[in-house]
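Loading example: each entry is read as two labelled lines plus one structure line.
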Amino acid sequence: MSNLQPARGTHDILPDEMRAQRRVVDIAGAVAERYGYEFMATPIFEFSQVFKRTLGDTSDIVTKEMYTFTDKGDDEITLRPENTAGVARCYMSQGLAQKAPVRFFYAGPMFRYERPQKGRLRQFHQFGIENIGIPGAFADIEVIATGARILDELGVADKTVLELNTLGDGESRDAYRTVLVEYLENRIDELSKESRDRLNRNPLRILDSKDEGDRKVVAEAPVFSDYLNNTSRAFFDEVREGLAALDISYRLNPRLVRGLDYYSHTAFEFTTEYLGSQGTVMAGGRYDGLIGMMGGPATPGVGWAAGIERLAMLCGEAPAARRPIAVVPVGEEARMPALKLSEELRRAGYRVDLGHSGNLSKRMKRANKVNAAAALIIGEDELARGAATLRDLDSGEQEEAPLASLVDRLARFR
RNA sequence: GUGGCUGUAGCUCAGUCGGUUAGAGCACCAGGUUGUGGACCUGGGGGUCGUGGGUUCAAUUCCCAUCAGCCACCCCA
């Protein structure tokens, strides 16, 4: 058994779970389209540089979580740990600046070498949207609104909370960073070991530490909002105004810091308390610096990504599979006519379960097991009359119907 | 990567203070019903008790290691 196990942190997705995930993607995609987004995909692997250059040398994702290997052509390849960098790369290599602004959504597998837990897999799936080319706050507002609308239509809005923060522009962040590091250095012996390590690499992260000692120090730390310049402040105000206008409620969380380096201004997360410590269900923000970091022209962008598994878990029970019509032949001479009838019904749009063995009783059992809405029985008698027996499997009522009228007769079971 | 809990049939779980054929419910298969499913009845198949090693006359049970899942940290979707 041991070597038949799927690799650590991966798992098979069987139909029940697949339906749940598919529903998430279908609903999210349908909503995203209403907001002007179009479905697209980038490759599952890219040159490692795509991620290394953009996600930041200090991020955990780059430093310890990437699936990177050298392929037979000696290229250094990485399985994508997220999709924003890939979309940005695509934006440049496809010359999409010509078509800016662009709005894309994607769905697919991502890979991160982490210690697995429920809701945290090494191969997991994300649905995300990217809005590239719009510098103004309206883009941020619409991006958040798209996410909120999706959560609402999935029926999980009341299980999630939107947390919002601003990271300001580069100037504001640099100014704050300097002051913060200075403050933290003065109280360095009160900080946890992890936070001391983070002090140089990524001091903003310390604001989000769960360590008690750290929290005490953080509580008295200088506040970012005091260091926002006018531009950054005005931007954030407009975002908040827009959310208010759309009745999207949120909770300001000044400690909300995105893990990746390319973010600026708006940062947000939809979180839930129903999933244990894997509570982030959808997260994103503005990444005006990203395309520049990849060597392209300064290009604004906003987006978010959502964990499909996490959303599906939040949604609870998977939707039921579509109920088929069971076609059951009786006797050898009915097999071929049953095959032809099945084909005809399928062409007409029905889902058909054609049993392949067993007597009538066994096939009826199977019809029941696959949750068929109706059974069509064709045997010698029916064949002689060019008809089939149509049995409603819920009520148990049955009648004989001429083959020619079947497609219509079945309409109520569609 | 750190700390902890768990691992017995396809699933959910009993059980063995170390002892001979390891159980239940559900699921599955067959029959009761060779032109009628769901309910019911009868019977049946399925486990090297996660894997490897150690202790022992004897290990599914104790010990160690390992793998996997889960929880918290970490990180995040």
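The two ends of chain A are 42 Å apart (CA to CA).
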